[in-house]
Design goal:
The chain has 385 residues and is an alpha+beta fold. The chain contains 19 helices and eight strands. A four-stranded mixed β-sheet has the order 2-1-3-4. The protein has a two-stranded antiparallel sheet with strand order 5-6. Strand 5 and strand 6 form a beta hairpin. It is globular, with a radius of gyration of 25 Å.
Length: 385
């Protein structure tokens, strides 16, 4: 009798332990397709935590919210839970595919791996549970996607589809629907309140005729909305479009060269302030993603020496980070060190003031003080890093 009793006690312990645990995630490194396979077997939905290693709210959720018993009781029963670092493994490709650009982003999928809903940002346990539940209701977005793919373009459908998409932060698809609504109305949409809202909230493509016309002839839209709103919209579209031109698929990274060239030419035509910054930032990010350190240092050098551009101390130091971690070419690292040495010398001589702010934030550390250590590290000298 002892063995059966012992077995019952052990099973009871395991059950009680399972009931008292927080969220159970799939093992680190699990591929999304494997989570889908498990969801299909169990009939559960999929909960995906899109995070990065540097994201503070991501760490807070992992530390304070996910381990709570009530969160585990809610999530483990109905979801296959998976966490993917959006900067490692298949993460960058999935981030591009699902248009994830802010962290943490939480996405709910049905058991077939089709997105149902998503939400962003940290929260307490009760709010998290509510948000998961609210975004786990399938509102038929897959059906609407199919209608779009089948060519439906009625105005009523497009507005309905756009409202559904905007709740899931699918900015690229929102842009395509916005383009469809604005098609043929580049010169007249400013007089229509609904179309003005579509333009301001959802159009992100500077190569679209409605955007091009507005960039060259903003008067009508400014008369309706004011200079500040319209100028802000134009700035956001010009400055962020470059990130959409870097394509990552199947482990390969490349630039949509045709659209990049059109974007640069259009910015030159419109005399966009900061256009060289937008162009070079795109090429720097591309080179980093491709691990093309020769191009990376060349673009950083062009930016640093550009007569109309000024790189902040903080951004300059950020440029050095991937070189120290991933570049094995000693000569390239010395070229980068020379840029930082120039900045350090300018600060020390009084030619330039050390920066203590980044945007609206006051920096707590002394950036100038760590520059010599980073310079030494790039040169291959022994440092405290």
């Amino acid at each position: 009798m002892k063995k059966p009793i012992l077995l019952v006690v052990m099973l009871l312990f395991l059950v009680l332990h399972a009931q008292g645990q927080g969220m159970v995630f799939e093992p680190q490194g699990t591929l999304f397709k494997d989570a889908v396979a498990k969801a299909q077997q169990t009939g559960k939905k999929i909960f995906l935590d899109c995070y990065t290693s540097w994201c503070g709210p991501c760490k807070m959720m992992a530390r304070d919210v996910f381990p709570q018993e009530k969160v585990g009781a809610f999530m483990n029963a109905s979801y296959v839970n998976i966490q993917i670092d959006m900067e490692k493994g298949e993460g960058p490709e999935l981030a591009k595919k699902w248009e994830v650009s802010a962290y943490p982003t939480f996405i709910i999928f049905n058991s077939n791996g089709q997105e149902i809903g998503r939400f962003l940002g940290g929260s307490n346990a009760d709010e998290f549970i509510k948000r998961v539940g609210d975004h786990s209701i399938d509102k038929g977005s897959d059906v609407m996607d199919q209608r779009w793919n089948n060519g439906e373009r009625s105005e009523a459908f497009l507005y309905e589809y756009l409202a559904t998409l905007s709740n899931t932060y699918k900015h690229n698809q929102c842009n395509l629907v916005a383009e469809a609504l604005l098609k043929g109305k580049a010169e007249t949409f400013a007089s229509d309140e609904n179309l003005r809202n579509v333009f301001m909230q959802h159009l992100t493509n500077p190569l679209d005729p409605a955007f091009i016309y507005t960039a060259k002839h903003p008067e009508a839209l400014k008369a309706a909305l004011g200079d500040r709103q319209v100028d802000g919209k134009l700035f956001r579209v010009w400055s962020t479009f470059g990130r959409d031109l870097i394509i990552e698929e199947g482990g390969k990274v490349w630039l949509d060269q045709e659209r990049f060239d059109k974007w640069v030419a259009l910015m030159n035509e419109c005399n966009v302030m900061g256009r060289d910054s937008y162009r070079l930032n795109t090429l720097i990010k591309l080179a980093e993603r491709q691990k093309d350190w020769r191009s990376y240092v060349n673009c950083c050098t062009e930016y640093f020496n550009h007569p109309d551009l000024d790189i902040s101390d903080l951004e300059l130091l950020k440029w050095m980070n991937p070189l120290m971690k991933e570049c094995n070419d000693a000569d390239l690292k010395k070229e980068a060190a020379a840029l930082l040495q120039t900045r350090y010398d300018d600060i020390q001589s009084g030619k330039r003031q050390a920066q203590t702010r980044a945007g609206a934030m006051t920096m707590s550390g002394n950036l100038t003080a760590i520059m010599p250590r980073i310079i030494a590290a790039l040169k291959g000298e022994r440092t405290g890093f």
